[in-house]
Amino acid sequence: MFVTVDEWSSRPRERWPLLRLACLLAGAVLLADGLVLMSMGLFSMGVTVPGALGLALCMLTWGWHPLQARLGRAGWTRRAWRAGWLLFLAWVASVALFWNALAGQVQAFNAAAGDVPLKAIIVLGSGTPNGQPSPALRARLDKARELAAAHPAAWVVVSGGVDFGETASEGRIMGDYLRAQGMAAERILQEERSTSTELNLRYSLPLLQAKGLGLTSPMAVVTSDFHTVRAQRIARRIGYTQSVVAGAPTPLYLRYNAWLREYFATASSWILGEV
Q1: Are residues 126 and 14 in the same domain?
Q2: What does the alpha-carbon distance between residue 138 and residue 144 come to, in Å, rounded to a whole number?
Q3: 160: phi > 0 → left, psi -120 to 50 → alpha, else beta; which?
Q4: What values do phi and psi take at 190, rounded to 5?
Q5: pLDDT tens for residues 148-171?
Q6: Number of domains the chain is built from
Q7: DSSP summary character for residue 226
Q8: Burial grade of 8 (CB within 10 A; 0-12, 13-18, 19 or more)
Q9: Which of 36, 70, 167, 269 shows the smallest number of beta carbons within 10 Å?
Q10: What is the mean pLDDT of residues 217-243?
């Protein structure tokens, strides 16, 4: 009635069936997530990495028996296999820690933005597919509208150049959206040349200086929640000493992909010394 060690090792299909099922389901979800978002034209590390992980999990789970048979032939392959899983789990833990720290920072930023007597609000651009603000950009603009309502004397700068394949600038599309939502046209300043966060902030400065404001004026930089930490660091590096950032919620369908993308972007910026 007892199973020997040899018999147990010869029946890998019977080991941890619930774990294998969980891996297969997780892989299917990650793969579907990546494929759906890529079909929408979204390609980033936050999209392709989950898709690749999902494909790998599905393949490894589906081919578990022959893979286990091959790995069992040599001790070094088993050790390498285990080390690979340990590294993967360590990476997952690092992503979870990053997300937790980022969520806390976003909450602190938004609380601080409500306590500052703002003189200006800079809205960073994002995608404008078919000449319309993307869901993420609409969330940023709606966040800016909230701040503008609370600070009626603050100028609102919408910043962004022309998207690839587009003819209208992000700044113009963002300005049109705010005007359509009832914001007074005379308080909207449009910056229409920038193609990055740093250029958003640099090119917005002359518009603010023309209104008597500068790097030391209290202002809010509005961006998506996942982007707040990097945006604040870039603003500080440029010289915006009194700026605060306000994070708009990322649409749910893209939220975890965007936060994963920010994990890689933050790591890359840190390695390259950009922030």
Answers
A1: no
A2: 10
A3: left
A4: -110, 120
A5: 999 999 999 999 999 777 889 999
A6: 2
A7: G
A8: exposed
A9: 167
A10: 94
DSSP states along 93-119: HHHHHHHHHHHHHHHHHHHHHTTS--S
* Bridge partners for 155 per DSSP: 120
Of the CA atoms within 13 Å of residue 240, those in its CB half-sphere come to 27
pTM: 0.77
CA dist., res. 7 & res. 232, Å (int): 59
d(CA 38, CA 41): 5
Q: Are 34 and 47 in contact (CB under 8 A)?
A: yes
Amino acid at 178: L
For residue 223, what are the domain limits? 109-272
The answer to whether residues 28 and 132 belong to one domain is no
Neighbouring C-alpha atoms within 13 Å toward the C-beta of 162: 5
